[in-house]
Write a structure and sequence with these properties.
The protein is of the alpha/beta class. It is built from 13 helices and 13 strands. It is about 45% helix and about 15% strand. Helix 3 (about 40-60) runs parallel beside helix 9.
Amino acid sequence: MAPVYLDHAASTPVRPEVIEAMLPFLSTAWGNPSSAHRFGRAARAGFEQGKRELARALGVTPNQVIFTSGGTEADNLAVIGSALAARAKGRPMHSVATAIEHKAVLAAAHAVVDLGGVETILPVDRNGLVDLDALDVALERSPSIVSAMWVNNETGTVQPMAEIGRRCKAAGVPCHSDAVQAYGKMAIDLDASGCTLLAISGHKLGAPKGIGALIVRDRHIIEAIIHGGGQQFGIRPGTENVAGAVAFGRAALLATQELNDQVTRIGKMRDALATRLRAVVSDLVIHAAHVERAPHILSIAVPGAEAESLLMHLDLAEVAASGGSACATGSTEPSHVLLAMGVDRALALGTIRFSLGHETTDADIDHVVAVFPGIVKRARELSSSLGRA
């Protein structure tokens, strides 16, 4: 059979409909969208089309969409940009983030400290849910931003964004959410969440890499972190990625149209995969199994095995998955997410992630279940021979 791709949380294939939509802006309508002549006007029309489609899919207005190079830039713009805006108003730069945020958010919060500000990292429970009491304490200090990811990219844990947003709003503090793993994968209600800033990324839902967006519902709470011309209200200057914007808009519309069916279908396959893997590996651990999770992510740990070995053997068996850690290849450090959740270090090092997508089939699940017991056996034998069991 064809190779099985179960790493959609890392990246998704570009959808044919998206390629078709963006091709004219790579071939004929290639002008600079800031130019006044016909070539520029054609490019500008495409850029505005992408913005409208993305806004419609999200339920926001087009002028609230700020295109970026991806989720990482969007997170940095939200966290650092809000700190700079606070400083400009004579207020302290103070970033609050949960301990299980993506490195893009945590590194941006650290950068705020380098700029002379402070950071507060909120603890989470064993399922990865933020400590709301700790949030309340942090809000008493009137931080410049609170950042809580909607869906954790490693475990799939869904944060109670409506409650977090409500508490932030009551305290008069902007709320930012990294929704890169949520948008297009599950229903999200931006109005109900109370989020002022929302980061999303195109290559997680069928658009190419290199295009993302920050939804900015109040331009007064952030300042630009890069400087140049006045494009995109001066919040994110630079010549716009027209083809990327068109692609993102089209991918977002497709994801929205198909959302209900895909959430149900993918969720059933994810649950079937979990159940069947536990049937063939009796001591398998499923992280965050007892709380709401996004339907496409399954994070599992195999006691007595190491993720690197499991992933190597999966790859040899034509299955693409990923580790539970976002650390660099070769690192012996476990995932910061799992450690923050209180997962044992050895178990964290034996964690891998399967993530399903639009193209995933029941046959893919069958193949993974068929090869997994042998893979676990070989990985455990290797760990035992190296004295790591």
